[in-house]
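Hi F.,

I've been meaning to write this up properly since the lab meeting, where we talked about keeping a consistent format for the predictions we share between groups. The idea is simple: the sequence comes first, exactly as it goes in, then the structure tokens exactly as they come out, then a line or two of notes. No screenshots and no reformatting. I'm using this chain as the first example so we have something concrete to point to.
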Amino acid sequence: MLNRDKVVLMSQLAMAEKNEEEDLKLYKYYKADYIRYNLIRTVLNVTLAYILLVFLILLYKIEDLIARLADFEFAGIGKSILKGYILVLIVYLVIGFVYYANKYNKSKKNIVRYYKKLRQLSMFYNDEKKQGV
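Output, unedited:
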């Protein structure tokens, strides 16, 4: 027998599965593992972007660099590049940590609602079994 509440609940679950597919995948991770995994990806991406940026700046100023090659203090330049990298990396790691922690928390709330609806659906089926339908 069709129960209107059960049909509405099943439609809500189907829509939730479709719209919150990423949340369902994300919920397989522990919060710390999810954040750690994404921060490692952030470090790799920031490192690659910073290397490309330094390379582009060097290409842009190649003419001046060649002209003053003898006057350069390579250790000082290396230290300033490293300081810039560490500063940019720290900023991105802090932003990434806050972003991924919030994303996980929002996802967890959606998943809790989803499982609550699943429990309600399970109760509908249990009630039907008890009634012998």
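Notes:
The chain has a mean pLDDT of 86.
The helical segments are 4-19, 21-26, 31-60, 62-67, 74-131.

If this format works for you, I'll send the rest the same way.

G.
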